[in-house]
Design brief:
By secondary structure, the chain is α+β, with helices and mostly antiparallel strands. Helix content is about 40%, strand content about 15%. The N terminus and C terminus are likely disordered.
């Protein structure tokens, strides 16, 4: 998918930062280790990084294999002891595992976890991670071995067979996996060989409250965790690991990061960004602003209604802020101007080469993207994309079904289940397979608290957005409203439907086709009548997504071939190197310091109390130790848990998010669009101090401070 990262963006904000436009800025980029901009670093910081230094850092880095809704969201980490101990973020650890830990295992009670011995380290089911062993550019080898026919399907099959053979040959040892990764939409191919660890055990995790982001930096957050990789029942022996540093950080200190960014969209063309700016984003802004304002008015009437609306009002307000900020970022004309200048230079180079096919690919994308954007927005408004809701709490921006509400969603899912049952297993849609039946049933059939007054507001706003999107004369609007106003129609459907009753939903779910088709319900009947129109729009949505993705890949391959200066590829879950310096910034004439100390946990601006463990340690902890700091380093999705090291290669921190949520959601497309961006890190010194003073874990402090191994950078 190339057009709508705004609608499918990760909101795991520990993964976000910013990227650039034309030529990379000083701190911009998540670089291949083999192409690290060492000369640029030497000029700016006077630090000369050697290939050995870079190799040791890369081999200390791990990537977490974590999926949500069959999409790799990943996460990063680093070995910090010879015995397989790994540092990452708490939010990288699967939430369901952390929630399953009994509060009886914490002292005082809470949801933190400390293993007092290796015997107490808890296996995390289903989690694995990879440590890089080797990498190589295999572009020429693949090109030489592909039997080109000029026919797309045959050529893709030939390429796939060659890639699979290369991967098989590189992963013939136990515990070793290999993958060929395409860079720049297929312009280059890199082979990565990993040691895979499938026995991962939790060693330490602070309370969720301690790791929570209560606001922008310098609001305190201790989002860090320790896990250990095991092999054959014993701690894995890491060939390289990072020693921790207690050295205080100061404004202007250079830092370097290593992680595995999952995905970015740094090479979107200006036309694609303009389509987001002019078509999709303004519509989402209007839709969410309308719902937020109506809910706020509803909540203002009475204390009881305010309490009922508060959770949804908070969520919708958060999403509204994110969409509005992304729109504001893309309205930065200087950023788009520089992107257009880069594209003009690319077209000029391709023209001088007489590469007419590549020029045509770029121009075709630019001319077609607006029409695709219209279809894609309509499809996403009607919820044809996105993950099934029964897979748990998602971290992606909601689709239109979130505007319509759960009753609408229940009806749509029941209708789709009716169609899916007529398909064989392999033809069923994602999320509707037999193996997911238990999760589906739990979501669909469990009792949920649904406030009809709130749902009337919600569905009425959704109908208004349908009118704005399709026009009042469109069949989908005519069927949905049946001649009534949006408010009247929402009132009638919400008050009349039985879809809020789990017993009614169960009866529909378990009924045969004849009984299902005979069942009558006003909201379900409306959705049944919409099915033909929905399927028509869904077909247009799928066609636009497919064409835009294919056109985008061809255009980006062409652009990559014409770039003359060294540049970094988009994120691919492969190991990447970044750099920057510790730096605060100014917001609304107020200086934001680069470093926040542990004192911030006790002197909170919101007046809240620290977690119980922290309160008990109030007289023991050194409040002057750095807790969090912000830097100019460039990170995106998947960078959570990335190691942050100093010039000596010692761990000084762990990436956990943007310094400020403002603007961070556009990290996948732009490093700077008129606003200073900062990446937030938990300090390594804070980890050592709190393990000793708050969590009473001398075993872990000792392991992290050992100096016997000379293999670390």
């Amino acid at each position: 998918m190339t057009f709508s990262p705004c609608l499918r963006l990760s909101l795991a904000l520990g993964l976000l930062a910013w990227a650039g436009a034309a030529s990379p800025r000083a701190e911009e980029g998540f670089w291949l280790f083999s192409e690290a901009p060492t000369e640029k670093i030497a000029r700016k910081y006077g630090i000369h990084l050697t290939s050995e230094w870079l190799d040791r850092l890369q081999r200390s880095t791990v990537r977490f294999n974590i999926k949500r809704f069959d999409v790799d969201i990943g996460g990063s980490g680093a070995f910090v002891s010879a015995d397989g101990l790994i540092v990452t973020n708490r939010h990288v650890i699967p939430r369901q595992f952390l929630e399953a830990i009994s509060t009886r295992e914490a002292d005082p009670p809470g949801d933190s976890f400390v293993a007092r011995s290796k015997r107490e380290e808890r296996e995390i089911p289903g989690l694995s991670l990879d440590a890089i062993v080797a990498s190589a550019d295999v572009t020429a080898e693949i090109a030489a071995r592909i039997k080109a026919t000029g026919r797309r399907v045959e050529d893709e099959r030939s390429r796939r067979e060659v890639v699979e053979e290369i991967e098989r040959n590189a992963s013939d040892a136990p515990g070793v996996v290999a993958e060929v990764v395409s860079l720049d939409s297929g312009a280059r191919d890199m082979l990565y060989v990993y040691r895979r660890y499938s026995d991962i055990r939790l060693v330490f995790a602070p309370e969720a409250e301690a790791a929570r982001r209560p606001g922008d930096h310098p609001a305190p957050s201790f989002d860090v965790a320790l896990v250990r990789a095991y092999e054959n029942g014993s701690p894995a022996q890491a060939s390289q690991f990072l020693r921790l540093s207690r050295r205080p950080l100061a404004e202007g200190d250079p830092i370097f990061i290593s992680g595995a960014p999952t995905k970015s969209s740094r090479h979107l063309f200006a036309a694609e960004l303009e389509a987001q700016r002019d078509i999709a984003l303004p519509r989402w802004v209007r839709a969410y602003a309308k719902l937020h304002d109506r809910l706020a008015a509803f909540a203002a009437g009475h204390a009881e209604t305010a309490r009922a609306a508060a959770p949804l009002l908070g969520a919708i307000g958060f999403f509204r802020r994110i969409i509005e900020d992304r729109l504001a970022s893309l309205q930065d004309e200087s950023f788009l101007r520089s992107r257009r200048q880069e594209e003009n230079a690319i077209l000029k180079t391709l023209g001088e080469r007489r590469d007419e096919a590549s020029v045509e690919a770029i121009r075709n994308l630019a001319s077609n993207v607006a029409a695709h954007a219209q279809n894609i927005f309509r499809g996403e408004l009607l919820a044809f994309g996105g993950p099934p809701p029964w897979r748990g709490q998602v971290v992606t921006l909601p689709y239109g079904v979130e505007l319509a509400g759960p009753l609408y969603s229940f009806g749509n899912i029941l209708l789709k289940l009716r169609r899916e049952r007529e398909l064989t297993g392999k033809d069923r849609s994602d999320g509707y397979l037999v193996i997911e039946r238990a999760d589906l049933e739990n979501w669909l059939l469990s009792a949920q608290s649904i406030d009809p007054d709130i749902e009337v507001v919600r569905l009425g706003c959704f109908f208004e957005t349908l009118i704005e999107t399709f026009g009042s004369d469109d069949p989908i609007v005519q069927i949905a409203l049946a001649g009534a106003s949006p408010a009247e129609r929402a009132e009638k459907l919400v008050r009349g439907t039985q879809l809020g009753d789990p017993g009614f939903r169960r009866a529909l779910y378990e009924s045969d086709s004849a009984h299902f088709d005979a069942a009558s319900d006003p909201l379900l009947d409306m959705l049944r009548a919409l099915e033909p129109e929905n399927l028509r729009i869904a077909d247009a949505w799928r066609e636009s997504e497919g064409r835009l993705e294919a056109e985008g890949m061809r255009a980006r391959r062409a652009a990559a071939s014409a770039r003359t200066e060294n540049s970094y590829p988009d994120g691919t879950r492969s190991a990447r190197f970044g750099f920057g310096m510790v730096a605060g910034w100014v917001r609304q004439e107020r200086r934001i310091p680069a470093v926040a100390t542990l004192a911030a946990f006790y002197d909170r601006r919101d007046g809240s109390d620290p977690p119980p463990r922290w309160a008990l340690a109030a007289d023991k902890i050194d409040r002057d130790v750095a807790l969090d700091f912000v830097s100019t380093a460039d990170v995106v999705g998947g960078s959570s848990g990335s190691a942050t090291v100093d010039a000596e290669g010692r761990l000084v921190g762990v990436v956990f998010g943007p310094g400020a949520i403002e603007g961070a959601i556009a990290a996948d497309v732009a490093y700077a669009a008129g606003k200073p961006r900062r990446t937030a890190h938990v300090s390594a010194a804070a980890l050592l101090e709190t393990l000793a003073r708050v969590y009473d874990a001398p075993r872990l402090v000792d392991e992290l401070q050992r100096t016997t191994a000379e293999r670390s950078p």
